[in-house]
Specification:
Distance between the termini: 48 Å
Number of helices: 22
Shape: globular
Number of strands: 17
Strand content: 5-15%
Oligomer: single chain
Length: about 525
C-alpha cells in the first residue's frame, strides 16, 4: 500500500496538482529533490560509504504483490538491494501518477507502460524539471545499461537531448490477424484465401452453404465495433498501421488515398451480409463468444488468445479446427500485417528520489548478463530447458515464478532477450504455433510501426488518442451505412483542424531527419 500522508502533505498535494508546480512541490517535500545534480546530494554521498540503501519502486498494476513474487527475492539476492514495491492502480493510473509526482513522493524508480499517453506524461515531467537527468549517472554507474540497451531506444527516450528514462523495448511482433474455421473451409471444399477476391468467395460460401449448421444464422466474419480497420484486410490496401509511408511521407489512414477503397470494400462486405450485422455493437467478448459458440467462421484475433479460444470452441464443437490466414494480397499486390515496435515500459527517477545513484546501480545490476537471464526466464533445468538454441519452459514452475517477470524489467539485454522471450510463448504449443506463423512464417510481410521509435512529439502525443477515436468511430459508421462516403472530404477537414494537420507536419519533420 502507498504510504498515507498527513494533513499537511494533503494540502501540499492539492497545491501541486498543477503539473507546472511539479518541481517546486517536489523540492519542498524532500531533502534531495531540488538538487540539479543527483550525484551531489547528501543522500547519495552517504550511501557510497555505507550499506546499500533500501529502495522504493513504483510499478504498473498486476494481480500479484510484487514484494512476494519470486522475482523480487531473486533480484534482492543477486543485486544486494532490498526494494519495497508499490503499484499504480489499474484504473486511471495517470491521475495517480500525477498526484505522486506533484506531491514529491520519494520513489527511487517509477516504471510505467510505454504507450503514447505515458510517454507524453514522462516528457512533460522531464520538461518541468521533475525527473533526474540520467546521462551523468549512467556514464558513471551504468556500464551494463550502455552495453545492453539498444542505442536507438535510448536515443528515442531523450527529451530535449537529455535522457530521463531507461526504455524497455517491445519485442517486435504481429499481434492480430484473421483466424478461420479450418473445418468450415473443408466442408465447403475450399482452401485458405490468399487474396481479397478469394476471401470474398470464402465468406460467400460460409454464408450460403451452412458449414456451421446454423442455417441463416451463420456469421461469415465477426469483428469488434472498436476495430473497423480489420487486420490483414486493411494491409491489402497498403494501410497496415495507423500511419503509413505514402510516397515518402507518413500519412494517417484517414488521409491515405487508399482509405476510400478500403471503406468501399468493407461496406460492400457488410451490405452482402458477409460481416457480422451487429459488429458495430460488438465488444471483444461478444465477438469471441460468437466464434467459440460455433456461429462465426472468421474472427479478427490476437495470437495470445488462441489457447483460450480453441478450448472454448472445442468444448462447444468437438470437431472444430482453426488456423490463421496468410497475409492477403490486394488487387495491386499490396500486402501487410501490422507489427508493433517501440517501448513496452519506461523507467525514470523522480527528483524526489532519496537514492538516485543507488537506483541507477540497481538497474545496472539487473542487466548483468546472468542476473538478467535469471530474472527473465529463471534457472536452467528448473524453470526452463535449453536444447538446439531453444528455450523451453518447465511447467508449472515457469508460469508460477516467471510469468510476471516482464513487469520487473527496466531495460533489457536487447541482443538476447528476444530469444529468451520465446520461452514465454512456448508455454503452450498452440500459442507458439500461432505466434510463429505470424512472426516467422509471415515475417516478410510484417510492417513495423514507423513511429515506434519516434521521440516525444508534442502535437502528435496530445492529439493521437482523440484523433484515433474520431477516425475509428467515423469508419465504423461508414461501414454499416450510418454515414455516407460522400462526406469524406468534410470529415478529413475536421480531422485536419482537430490537430491532424499539426500532427502530420510534426511527424514528417521528424521522419525527414530519421530517414537520413
Amino acid at each position: 500500500m502507498l504510504k498515507k500522508h498527513n494533513k499537511a502533505m494533503l494540502l501540499t498535494v492539492a497545491a501541486c496538482l498543477s503539473i507546472s508546480s511539479l518541481v517546486a512541490c517536489a523540492s519542498k517535500n524532500t531533502t534531495t529533490g531540488g538538487s540539479a545534480s543527483p550525484a551531489s546530494t547528501a543522500a547519495a554521498t552517504t550511501i557510497a560509504a555505507g550499506p546499500k540503501a533500501e529502495l522504493r519502486s513504483l510499478q504498473i498494476w498486476q494481480q500479484e504483490d510484487y514484494n512476494t513474487y519470486p522475482v523480487a527475492k531473486f533480484l534482492e539476492e543477486k543485486t544486494g538491494y532490498k526494494v519495497k514495491y508499490d503499484m499504480l492502480p489499474q484504473d486511471k493510473p495517470q491521475d495517480k501518477l500525477n498526484i505522486l509526482i506533484a506531491s514529491g513522493e520519494s520513489y527511487d524508480v517509477i516504471t510505467t507502460i510505454g504507450g503514447t499517453d505515458f510517454k507524453a506524461l514522462y516528457a512533460d515531467y522531464a520538461k518541468k524539471g521533475a525527473l533526474v537527468d540520467l546521462g551523468p549517472l549512467i556514464d558513471k554507474f551504468g556500464p551494463n545499461i550502455k552495453s545492453s540497451v539498444d542505442p536507438e531506444a535510448l536515443e528515442a527516450a531523450k527529451v530535449d537531448g537529455k535522457l530521463y528514462a531507461i526504455p524497455t523495448k517491445s519485442i517486435p511482433t504481429t499481434s492480430s490477424s484473421l483466424y478461420i474455421r479450418q473445418d468450415w473451409l473443408d466442408k465447403v471444399g475450399m482452401k485458405a484465401p490468399t487474396t481479397l477476391d478469394e476471401l470474398v468467395a470464402v465468406l460467400k460460401a460460409f454464408k450460403e452453404k451452412d458449414p456451421g449448421g446454423n442455417g441463416d444464422k451463420n456469421i461469415p466474419l465477426t469483428v469488434r465495433g472498436d476495430a473497423p480497420f480489420i487486420d490483414n484486410i486493411v494491409g491489402a490496401f497498403g494501410m497496415p498501421n495507423f500511419w503509413n509511408n505514402v510516397n515518402g511521407k507518413l500519412t494517417p489512414r484517414i488521409l491515405d488515398p487508399a482509405y476510400k477503397d478500403y471503406v468501399n470494400f468493407a461496406q460492400d462486405l457488410f451490405k452482402q451480409g458477409l460481416i457480422d450485422k451487429e459488429f458495430a455493437a460488438n465488444k471483444d467478448a461478444t465477438a469471441k463468444e460468437k466464434f467459440t459458440s460455433g456461429r462465426a467462421g472468421i474472427i479478427m484475433m490476437n495470437w495470445s488468445d488462441v489457447p483460450v479460444i480453441i478450448d472454448a470452441l472445442v468444448k462447444n464443437v468437438p470437431t472444430a479446427k482453426a488456423n490463421y490466414l496468410p497475409a492477403l494480397k490486394g488487387k495491386d499486390g499490396k500486402v501487410g500485417l501490422s507489427a508493433n515496435q517501440g517501448f513496452d515500459r519506461i523507467s525514470f527517477i523522480p527528483k524526489a528520489s532519496k537514492h538516485p545513484e543507488d537506483a541507477i546501480k540497481w538497474m545496472n545490476a539487473k542487466l548483468e548478463k546472468d542476473t538478467f537471464k535469471g530474472m527473465a526466464i529463471g534457472e536452467e533445468n528448473k524453470h526452463f530447458t535449453f536444447k538446439d538454441g531453444t528455450y523451453t519452459p518447465i511447467q508449472p514452475i515457469f508460469t508460477d515464478e516467471r510469468n510476471r517477470a516482464n513487469n520487473f524489467l527496466m531495460g533489457t539485454d536487447d541482443i538476447n532477450y528476444p530469444i529468451y522471450w520465446q520461452a514465454r510463448v512456448r508455454k503452450d504449443l498452440r500459442l507458439f504455433e500461432a505466434w510463429k506463423f505470424m512472426n516467422v512464417t509471415e515475417a516478410n510481410v510484417r510492417v513495423l510501426d514507423p513511429l515506434g521509435f519516434a521521440p516525444y512529439l508534442p502535437d502528435f502525443s496530445k492529439n493521437f488518442q482523440q484523433l484515433n477515436v474520431l477516425v475509428g468511430d467515423y469508419t465504423t459508421k461508414l461501414i454499416f451505412g450510418a454515414e455516407a462516403i460522400s462526406g469524406l472530404e468534410a470529415f478529413q477537414q475536421k480531422f485536419k483542424t482537430s490537430g491532424g494537420d499539426a500532427s502530420v507536419k510534426e511527424v514528417n519533420d521528424w521522419y525527414a531527419t530519421a530517414k537520413k
